[in-house]
Amino acid sequence: MLLLNFVLLLGVIIIAVSLPIADASVTMSTDLLSQCVYDPVTTDLQAHAVVLRNIRDSPGCQAEESVANCKGWKSTPVTEYLLRTGSEHECLDFCPLPPLPPKPTTASLLQKSNSTRRHHGVPHALLSVGSESTAKPADFHWPYSRVGLFTLEPRRTPCSVAIASTFETYIGTIATQLFVYGCSLVAVSLLVSFGKLTSTCEPERKPIRSGS
Fold first, then answer.
1. Residue 140 — φ and ψ, nearest 5°?
2. Phi and psi for 155 in degrees, rounded to 5?
3. Rounded Cα–Cα distance for residues 52 and 46 (Å)
4. For residue 178, which of 5, 4, 7, 10 has the smallest C-alpha distance?
5. Measured CA angle at 148 (ends 145, 149), to 5 deg
6. Looking at residues 16-20, what average pLDDT do you find?
7. Residue 4 and residue 11: Cα distance in Å, rounded?
8. Looking at residue 15, what is its pLDDT?
9. What SS3 state is found at 158?
């Protein structure tokens, strides 16, 4: 009976440990996917990634194999982490970047010119009210590919997305396995205890004596 109590207690402890791990996995993945730019944990990483992107897009760095070979690169724990992450996950920068502005076409330029003539004399503040009310916020996704920071090959998936996917896969799998293992221990101990209880409650059968 003592062994069954130990198994039951062990299963409950494992279940209690697995739940915070699963919750932390989901929270971290959600923050990396939706709050990467604003989360205090990733703000420093994103700030360094933006600086490295500006260096990478400069004329003197576009032909280099890696931004680490360009002027302005400084080896710090944060930049080394970005280098290692970008190389391992083959990802882009860190947080999802806003889409590049579309190149102006002849039709768009003519439409803008006609709109300017049509509203000539109207204060700009009044014209901007309608446009701001219908404007959508920056779409922080990855609809395009860019040359990676540490490679000349194009990359599309942001590093924060790759890290979130890996984190949720491995840590989430560990939490799920712990939860299932704990539930199995609890179920086995309860089944064995129930079996012993039913066997104890059965009435004792007296042996049938044959008549003389």
1. -85, 70
2. -125, 150
3. 10
4. 10
5. 145
6. 92
7. 11
8. 92
9. strand
The amino acid present at 112, given as its one-letter code, is K
Instruction: Give the chain's radius of gyration (CA, Å).
Output: 31
Considering the entire predicted model, what is its pTM?
0.60
Residue type, 114: N
* Contact in structure between 47 and 207 (CB atoms under 8 Å): no
Q: Using CB atoms within 10 A of its CB, is residue 67 exposed (0-12), middle (13-18) or buried (19+)?
A: buried
Tokens of residue 207, six digits? 């042996």
CA distances to 55, 58, 97, 166 from 63, rounded to whole Å, are 12, 10, 22, 31
Q: According to the model, what pLDDT value does residue 128 have?
A: 36
The rounded distance, in Å, linking the Cα atoms of 111 and 75 is 48
Which residues have C-beta within 8 Å of that of residue 189, sequence separation ≥ 6?
A: 4, 5, 7, 8, 11
Over the range 12-28, which residues count as b (16 or more CB within 10 Å of their CB) and which as e? eebbeebeeebeebeeb
Half-sphere exposure of 63 (CA within 13 A, CB side): 2
